[in-house]
Design goal:
Elements (H helix, E strand, L loop, with lengths): L5 H10 L7 H20 L4 H13 L5 E3 L4 E3 L1 H13 L15 H15 L5 H19 L1 H5 L4 H17 L4 H13 L12 H22 L14 H5 L2 H7 L10 H5 L12 H14 L6 E8 L15 H4 L3 H9 L17 H6 L3 E5 L16 E7 L4 E6 L12 H11 L4 H12 L3 H7 L1
Parallel strand pairs: 3-4
Antiparallel strand pairs: 1-2, 3-5, 5-6
Helix pairs in contact: 1-9, 2-4, 2-6, 2-18, 2-19, 3-4, 4-5, 4-10, 5-6, 5-8, 5-10, 6-8, 6-12, 8-9, 8-10, 9-10, 14-16, 19-20
Length: 448
Amino acid sequence: MNIQELTSGLAQSVRSSRPEASIEAMREAKKGLLDFTAASFAGRNDSGVEKLLNLIEGEGGVPIAPLIGQGKKASPSQSALLNGFIAHALDFDDVHSDVRGHPSAVILPALIASAAARRDGGRFLGAYIVGVEVMARLGESIGRHHYEKGWHNTGTLGAIAAACAIGYAEELSQEELERAIGFAAAQAGGMRVQFGTEMKPLHAGLAAQSALFAVKLAQTGFGGSHTALDGKQGFFSLYGDLEKAESTFLSNWGAPWRIVQPGLWFKIYPFCSAAHHAADAIRKLVVQHGISAGKTDRIEVVFPPGGDAALTERQPETGEEGRFSVEYVIALALHGRELTAAGHFNNEPIPQNIQAYLPRIHRIYDAEIQPDPQAVPKGRFTIVRVFLSDGRVYEARVNCPMGAPGNGLSEEDIKEKLQLALQGDERKAASLVTAIEQADIQSYLSHI
């Protein structure tokens, strides 16, 4: 592929997509929208929401697009920003292993704002499928060093993917979409140094807002590059691996759709997915062997090199920081706390007894252990090894945690997640489920 073809090729691929023809892709899109809705309602009362609402209300604007769980509307731009934050507030939203980040928390808030502004939900689910496709391919082609250098893929890749999703929904021309991709790429940002703070979930909102703005700019005819992804000064060269992108980015488009294979990872825990392997392992050990904090001497957590890159906190001080700490997750389980409870992962200080236990938990990296071929993400595993005070040693290895593709949640599981997020409001849950199943997006917008 010529180095000048990535941007135009992406626009062509998006515009020629026909995801609605795939029964599997549409089914997975409905599951993704359902899980996004559950995660968003679970996060609707996060402390950061009120702060952003105050900013929005102070700014003013025409109330057009819904704010999830708030009973209010705002401008489309404000809606995209706040709904992105709400969806990602608890880190309870889906992830995709190709993205190494969170696609739905960016793509769906952008599409909600677009659909509300146009009063047209046509092509919504198809656009979502396209957005996931773009974001997964960006994540695959950007190269592993992008994330390892400190970029947060949800923010850096999300705006381009969401702009392509809106572009599909609104049927942008080739020229408009090429420029929209460039406008979104110019706004790409997000740093992993923000993990464990309110800024981390705001990356999703900013990316959704940037995507909406990128499309609006393109539709006005505003001038911009048509080759923003290409060449030595383009997106892939600046942020990642141009050579890899040229060979992988557009190959075998939609065959199968990335929302189907490898698919979205729907979470059962409200914390970083990199700690889910360990969470499953320690829960298994607690149940099987009656292990508790008082019976243990020390814990070893074994990763492949780099397998804990997202787990930036070793001695967190708040539950919010604890979302990115395998030490905190294990300590909670050993102290009898329920890992599915979002209340343990808010911005309150961590209890002193748990804080004092964290130094007993040690990370180990072993490049000699062979990953399981079915591991999710590919090449990953976590082994939790518990050394009891009486000399006994127990361990558990998890290659594919609950919720990940290959060990995924059923539609009924996700409906239960929504029920819990709505605190038993069965009527609202039923209305949302029906709207999603019938792909009635205007009804869906009226109920969120």
